[in-house]
Prior knowledge:
The chain is an alpha/beta fold.
Amino acid sequence: MISRRLIAMAVGLAVALCGCGQQMHSPTLLSSPAQTHTLVLQVNRNLSRNVLVCVDEFADAVEQMSGGALTVDVQLGYPNDTTVSREEADMVLLNNAQIARADRLFAMFSLPFLFDNGHHMTSALNSEEVRQILEQRLSEKGIFPMVAFYNGSSHLVTGGQELRTATDFRGVTAAMSVGSADESAVFQALGVRVLPYTSALRLGERVELSTEDGKSESVSVSAIEVTLDQVLSLEHSSGRVRFINSYHRMEPLWLFMSSQSFGQLTSWEQAVLLESCAGLTAGMEERRSVREAGLREQIRAREIPEVDVERLAIAGVLYGKNGQGTDLYTPPDYFDPRVYQLVQRFE
């Protein structure tokens, strides 16, 4: 049986460590079973080096804490939402789009303006209340959610225009590499004209758009979606660039385990695994925090103005206070108001 007390303890530790951004060094647990138990963890070989390094550190921590009684065999491949249910691995690291194929509820976590930043996302998705809902939703598929990680976000740059409030987005023409029509619909509800992103587009460039009456209209590209890595290398046709710190689209990574495999572990082994998950969360947070701080310092050194959006107010305009939607926007069917309300309680 899965011990919810153990889960809450380990996840609480993970969230606390994410807040302080320090690597966890856990002592080896004193008592251990005599037999060695090996778990297979399959991860996508295309993940970033930082993620792969943290996964290897996670495997090392499990072995160290258990005194070698519990080990993790990390295998590179191309896992998906059926990997653990087909018993191809005991654990799997998936991006949000992959697990959304198993349960569409997860697709809501990719919708714009749900989270303030990476810490907010990690705290909310690893909270006991949200975990209980996700665990219940995935139980019939034999998938047990271990922990969620922040893995970066998209932002916006403009040719000088501030995008701070919901009304500031009205009339903006934005080139965006949105992952789905539902994500694009959120910006369209704010009055944004969404263009498919291509590397050839520049801020201030004029493009022809088809109108509803079949005619064409010439519009200027006033915003482009970027990651932090792209801000400094972005080419643009105008001399001014403003960085919009929007955190508008995040794609969390998830560590899942076969419910059967987890249930077969002893309570001691479960404790080792869950505490090691806390260390994995802290390690990933530390590496990403250092990297993003360096990029932001370079942005400031280039004297690129930065604007923080009023995220919670924008979310209220779109999703409403209780996540039921508004006259401006109706959330998709998979959007769970209960989960939305829980997420907004965290900062």
